[in-house]
Specification:
mainly alpha; two-stranded antiparallel sheet; two-stranded antiparallel ribbon; 4 strands
Length: 86
């Protein structure tokens, strides 16, 4: 009975070590670098989409989606629809 429990614990420890080595190797390989760069690019693109050149940073929930699919700052939308500056 003790041998079975010990074998199970050692197998789980082996899986944990292999998983840790895989994650570590992924961080220093070209594939890991490519994954980090892709994640950084997506984060920067999302941040750029939320920044209006005139009114600055906006909340994603406040943006107005145009029929073309482009997000628009709510202040710019009001200016375009009502024709006056706020």
């Amino acid at each position: 009975m003790n041998a079975i429990i010990l074998e199970s614990v050692l197998f789980i420890a082996l899986l944990a070590v292999v998983g840790a080595l895989f994650v570590t190797a992924l961080g220093i390989t070209p594939l890991g670098r490519r994954l980090r760069q892709t994640a950084n690019r997506k984060r920067i693109d999302k941040q750029a989409d939320l920044t209006c050149p005139i009114h600055g940073q906006q909340q994603e929930s406040d943006l107005v989606r145009l029929p073309t699919g482009e997000p628009l700052c709510p202040h710019c939308y009001k200016e375009a629809v009502h024709g006056h500056l706020t």
